[in-house]
Amino acid sequence: MADRSIYVEMKDITKRFGSVIATDHMNFEVAKGEIHALLGENGAGKSTLMNMLSGIYIPDSGHIFIDGKEVRITSPRDALKAGVGMIHQHFKLVDVLTTLENILLGYKTGLFVRKKEQKIKLQQLMEKFQLDVDLDKYVYEMSVGEKQTLEILKTIYRGARILILDEPTAVLTPQETNKLFKIMRRMKEQSCSVIFISHKMNEVMEIADRITVLRKGKTIATLEKESTNPQELTELMVGRPVDLSIKRIPALSDNIVFQVRNLSAVNEEKVEVLKNISFDMYEGEILGVAGIAGSGQKELCEALAGLYPIKQGEIIFKGENLAGKSPKEFITRGISMSFIPEDRLGMGLVANMDIVDNILLKQYHHSKGIMVQRKPAAAKAKEIVKKLEIQTPGIKEPIKNLSGGNIQKVLLGRELDSHPELLITAYPVRGLDINTCLKIYDILNEEKKRGVAILYIAEDLDSLMGLCDRIMVISNGEITGIVDARKATKEQLGLMMLGNKEVHHAV
Amino acid sequence: MQFRIVIKSEIGKKKRVLIFLGSIIAALIVSGLFLAFLNLNPFQVYIAMLQGSVGSVYRIEQTIIYAIPLIITSLGVAIAFKMKFWNIGAEGQILMGAFMASYFALNYSFLPRFILLLIMFFAGFIGGAVWGIIPAFFRAKWGTNETIITLMMNYVALKWVVYLQYGPWKDPNAFGFPKLANFAKNAVLPELFGVHIGWIIAVLLTIFVYFFLNRSKKGFEIAVLGESAITARDAGINIFRTIIFAMVLSGGICGIVGFIEASGVEQTLTKDITGGVGYTAIIIAWLGALKPQWMVLASFLFAILIQGSSYIQSAFGISAYSAQLLEAIVLFFVLGSDFFTRYKLIIDWPSLLRRTKENGK
Predict the structure, then answer these.
(1) What does the angle CA A431 – CA A437 – CA A439 come to, to the nearest 5 degrees?
(2) What is the pLDDT of residues A389-398, one digit of tens each?
(3) Axis-axis angle for helices B113-142, B90-107 (nearest 10)
(4) Tell me, what's the ipTM?
(5) Interface of B with A in 154-213 (CB under 8 A)
(6) Strand pairing of B191-192 and B195-196?
(7) What percent of chain A clears pLDDT 70, i.e. is strictly above it?
(8) Architecture of domain A245-334+420-507
(9) Count H helices, E strands: chain A?
(10) Do A372 and B227 touch (CB under 8 A)?
């Protein structure tokens, strides 16, 4: 791009939350027709900065210019008026309404909604930006990717020419991600600007024109993609040299510790959500589970922890069939399960309690007597805070006051610290920055060395292929194959995720 | 937008106390205006209220007698509230506790005093506990709304006691008055330092509930369940059993109040035995933030307020309604001050000024 006129300029933006400075005199600019990536660790200020551009927060000081004119944005409506729209991680859609109804909802166009007129206008927009959505489809029938496309259409329809995408690929399959990138490129051709917040280095390198790196509330640098590389970006992000490779340590033994036989389960609507699942796990092995979101991952995790009623099948842990036992008995036998949901809410923690009590939650069963022992839990809390570099004013802080990434670290720290023999962990690095991801991989590897069998459920194929020994692919509640992670390819896994039975036999 | 209400981050203890004191002062000012309107000197009235409630040994004793049921009942409901189980059925639980205790008081008065009182104590506990288990079971089994069930069960208990009082348990020697016979001396709580020994029970229960909520495994499970049922389940807590257990304790403690009031204060069973304590205790539990030590303090403040306002009725010839209005004003301010501990009001001056300017054009 030779001609680069500045579209958005944020100057000297400062925002404080209590005593914490979220953004400290930040500067940021986006050119017309550019895809600009915002990169930074958890808590670097990416979301805060973008929330100020889209009217969710109001900066304490600083100036925002759009198309050269200073604007004052105090609400999302103001932002849209100025042409800025943000797609959040949690979609703001009504399930029981159609695409069209969702788009027109709350958008004042006078007394009557002229559906036909609006429909024509929407179709023109869809053509222009090559957005592919069915205007009469209900949201509850849509996949995550479709919902996202709908959000984009809605935002553009309401006048956005600068689109902010907050970690849009976190919930998408690789295929859906490619589709999204196509849309982003199309927007660029139409001289709209896209701001892309992401943790995933490979995606940033694929799609962005320029990259701005933030660290601890400060703008560190803005770089052309062509003149930089993942290594440099990571170092700017973290502030020191980092080794980016995921280590895989060889599996230990061929002792089977965990066997699942013909496991089936139905949900409340009597739909079969797990179909005849059978697999083995070895001591000191990381078995990855890949699959499109909602393919039965959650049900599998819960069933294996005794939390989901199973219709038939056996869950054999060290020779003992645990099917039908209470969750407490799974815990006391050393089976730990942690599931980080897409919205990071309700993930086995108590928001209003402090770190100590949250750690106590998985420990108090083991102590004797009728009283709880807080002292050992407090010592553990201190240890975990230090080991995982959790940013918190203290171990007595209610965890609702911590940032999402830090809350997640508390959960993982607790689960890993219970020294389980079987660790089931779903999406442990969801939404975490690269440095923390690596730390968590290291911790998983440490557990593996101790002989723990680890079931690792993830969406990111790179981490699955880098970390695991074998990868089990599930689709629609069914195993479509178990492959050797060293030999697997993304294409092969992608096909299996879509339901094609094992492309070639591996293990 | 010119005004915004923003959630405050955690505030310190000092500030919380200041806000509380501020609300009391504001309440005194507003009720002072009301008293001035009645041609009374507010300062005299306030001083009289204190004199009426803590002005002499006898009055202090009366205030303590009033505070005892408030303390114990609020301890009982606090256990349920900690689990976010809205037990507003303390009235019914007190009545059923009183009924059970009275049964033994009326029929087993030949037993030695200590044994009889002990039996009455446990009978009271069981009466309240049964009344607690019923809504707990429905909630745990079918997810029914406990607010409605506990509330309705208050009326069932009340009508049951009214039936006994007007029917089978009516004292034949009362010249046709619908009342029960007074308890025999064996069934009456003895006094210590001028107050029936219900105060010792209140002290012991306060200590018990404090340790139960803060230190025991069961108390911890109740708190976790109150915050999130999913988290509780994931942590291996048996939700059904925990709900039932908490309500046995919550209802049972309220049932003990029934025993104390019947045995120590009324010395018989009457339909008015609760005196509305079951509802007042809900407010106290909230004022004390479900912390036993604060609930004891709040109970005393309430007892002083109620004793004081009944004293000024006779001292100044104020009507009972005016005295209740004073109580209501204090409550309104104290409860309302909670808003300022959670939220702050932000006035956006630049945009307010801009708006005014635009309007002026």
Answers:
(1) 145
(2) 887 788 888 8
(3) 150
(4) 0.78
(5) 211
(6) antiparallel
(7) 94
(8) 3-Layer(aba) Sandwich (3.40)
(9) 16, 20
(10) no
